[in-house]
Write a structure and sequence with these properties.
- The protein contains twelve helices and eleven strands.
- By secondary structure, the protein is an alpha+beta fold.
- Strands 1-2-3-10-5-8-11 form a seven-stranded antiparallel beta sheet. A two-stranded antiparallel sheet has the order 4-9. The protein has a two-stranded antiparallel sheet with strand order 6-7.
- Helix 9 crosses helix 11.
- The radius of gyration is 30 Å and the shape is globular.
Length: 374
């Protein structure tokens, strides 16, 4: 009959017996046929059991705080110079917001084979892998094994805000891949993809990276629990399709280049009031001007003159945070007798005026605000 799919019809042989079985085949064939049907039924039951178990696991994926919104764990480190805000998202997966106003700090490590995906929002952060040094600038992304990041975290400009997503392949749910099965992405595959023959990967800022991370810095508290889950899945999907060959990577710098830049930094900080041009600095350290500029900009992301200006403004910001001194008084300490000029210089580095910074200094953090409401 037309309109009836073939798999809905009963398959009959010439004797009229259903299922293609002929009585002429004898009792032995009949037993084999029954055994085959029993095997098919058993396999079907097993698949249903596995599917039901996967569904139960999928529904049970919750952060450690199952009720309400995820509660952040906030740690103040290095005498309060570093604030670490941690949100659990899935078992074995957490989001860490790091706000640093220091050049170095020993951050707590989880231990085990942990993968860190880091996004720099402001400032710079330094990583050492093999014979090379890498420096994340604002907007950059890196992927690394935590165990390869030895020693304290280093912030060359003394100022850093950023996010690190920590993933433990041994603890993260396998059923995360159920959501992304059509693109075959999971926590366990990222290590092979990005860190197969190395311990560190870094790429420059791009529109895709900005889209993934920008919204994590201002998540409304009322939707934070579900939104963090969605963004983690989006991040896995993004990294699974990331064009490793086409994207510009962060170049590494040699130990010699890094040491030259840090020697120049020490000299600049010891001679803050001097007029230190790149040419004069190159002559002092017996290198070419281009070599000095390349090394210094690679580590600090700016010229020596811009570095000195930034250090002054970050010093002024620290005084605004920690003292009750007037803006005019602080401006004078850093060589500004004109408050308008000081305000323009401060805004160029910090992003807001001195008064606005002091009024909002409790939110000098890249972590989403917590109001205490649900």
């Amino acid at each position: 009959m037309p309109g009836i799919p073939q798999h809905g019809r009963q398959n009959k042989n010439r004797t009229g017996a259903p299922g293609g079985f002929s009585h002429r085949q004898g009792r032995s064939s009949h037993k084999e046929h029954l055994a085959e049907r029993a095997d098919r039924a058993y396999n079907t039951d097993m698949k249903l059991d596995n599917l039901n178990q996967t569904c139960r696991e999928t529904r049970s994926i919750q952060p450690e705080h199952a009720c309400g919104q995820p509660e952040p764990k906030v740690q103040l480190l290095c005498g309060g110079a570093v604030s670490l805000t941690v949100y659990p998202v899935f078992p074995g997966i957490e989001i860490r917001y790091i706000d640093a106003h220091t050049s170095s700090c020993c951050l707590p490590r989880s231990g085990g084979k942990i993968m860190e995906i880091t996004h720099c929002r402001e400032g710079r952060i330094e990583y050492h892998s093999g014979e090379s040094y890498y420096f994340l600038a604002p907007g950059d992304l890196s992927v690394a094994w935590e165990e390869s990041l030895t020693g304290p975290a280093l912030f060359p400009t003394g100022h850093y805000h950023g996010i690190t997503v920590a993933l433990d392949p041994a603890r993260s749910p396998d059923c995360l891949s159920c959501f992304l099965s059509d693109v075959n992405v999971g926590v366990g595959t990222l290590g092979d993809r990005f860190l197969g023959d190395t311990s560190y990967f870094a790429c420059r800022s791009s529109s895709g990276v900005r889209h993934i991370f920008s919204e994590l810095y201002s998540v409304p508290e009322s939707i934070r629990k579900g939104y963090f889950k969605v963004k983690i899945l989006e991040l896995l999907l993004f990294l699974g399709a990331f064009p490793l060959e086409g994207e510009p990577r962060r170049r590494g710098y040699s130990n010699g280049q890094v040491q030259l830049a840090k020697e120049v930094e020490a000299y600049l900080l010891a001679n803050r009031d001097g007029k230190c041009t790149s040419e004069a600095l190159a002559a002092r350290f017996c290198v070419s001007t281009s070599a000095l500029q390349q090394s210094f900009r690679g580590v600090y992301g700016m010229s020596p003159a811009a570095f000195l200006r930034a250090q002054k403004m970050h010093g002024a910001a620290e005084l605004l945070r920690k003292t009750d001194r007037t803006v005019l008084d602080i401006a004078g300490e850093f060589g500004y007798d004109n408050p308008s000029k000081f305000a323009r210089a401060f805004r160029a580095v910090i992003g807001v005026s001195p008064n606005a910074y002091r009024c909002g200094m409790e939110r000098d953090s890249c972590a989403p605000a917590v109001t205490g409401g649900q």
